[in-house]
Amino acid sequence: MRPIERDLERFKAIVRGEVKKRAREFLTREELLGQLEGRLVSIPLPQLELPKIVYGEPLEEGLGLGPGGEGLGPGGHVPVAELELEEFLDLMGEALRLPRLRPKGEGEVTQEALRHTTIARKGPRGLRHVRRTLKESLKRALLTGEYREEDPRLVPEREDLRYKAPKAKPQPHAQAVVVFALDVSGSMREEELRLVKTLAYWITAWIRRHFPRLERRYLLHDAEAWEVPEEEFFRAREGGGTRLSSALLLAEEVLKAYPEAFYNRYLYHFSDGENWPGDTEKALEALGRLLPSLALYGYAQVQPPGREGSFLYELQTLREGSEALATAELSGPESLPRALRRLLGGEG
């Protein structure tokens, strides 16, 4: 290995180590969240400067101090390295112990793979099939009497040429849909919504890492539920009471457009767990109908100071016999790694 290649591998190892070491920090850095839509992720790197011995009087700024900031590169900028999104997510997943997602079925037959399994009379020179071309040339020479055993050379003519040709072959392609439902009643505060936004970003990124064909739907609810575009999902603020069943009933309708046989279906619900009296039974009935057809139902309950909703505990009645139910509590940024792991079906 050449020195420059060895240096490059060493640099990549430093970047990978930095991601794994600071995974929990990266989880809550909002400037990284927007990058999950692209192909490259910029990773800020620490920069160490060796101490220098300077003879003479101390500088005016103080002994050992100078202008600039700690860890800054030339021009006062933090040095960064770029990673492919897939590699970044894999490193984050390894550091946070996120589970690998397995398709429930093969998915819809929508993708066609091209394989060169047929023969054509026309094609590019690079795909010329030598054996078939010589075979056609021999057949022609035998039929016309041109073939001589004492001089068996074959000179293919235009009509003898044969080429490898592609043939489309349908292949099953796993795909998924994820539905996010968010409680925007008056009891949900900005701090809780910020945690939910972070969770939703990472859930989306991790599911899409396993299912490139991922569709997303977004629901808001208070006492009623309605669908919104993604950009409105985290900006909406409503008031009034809460009926958790409204979100589950609307999700049930939305998911009818994504048959279980063709889609891995994920449903995530974020709330503080405070529900309208008498609505919990209706919500559990709707969820009971949904669970058998879901790859996963994840419920995250935020815990505002001084309040504690009860829906998280009511869900325990459905946990027995269902592997598709995952729950987590959100009490602050420090709870995000565990909540993310649990909501993706991993162990807490």
Automatic annotation (TrEMBL):
Coiled coil: none
Signal sequence, renumbered to the chain: none
InterPro entries assigned to the protein according to its UniProt record, in alphabetical order: UPF0229, vWFA_dom_sf
Cited SUPFAM superfamilies: vWA-like
Listed Pfam families: DUF444
Annotated protein name in UniProt: Stress response protein
Organism this protein belongs to: Thermus filiformis
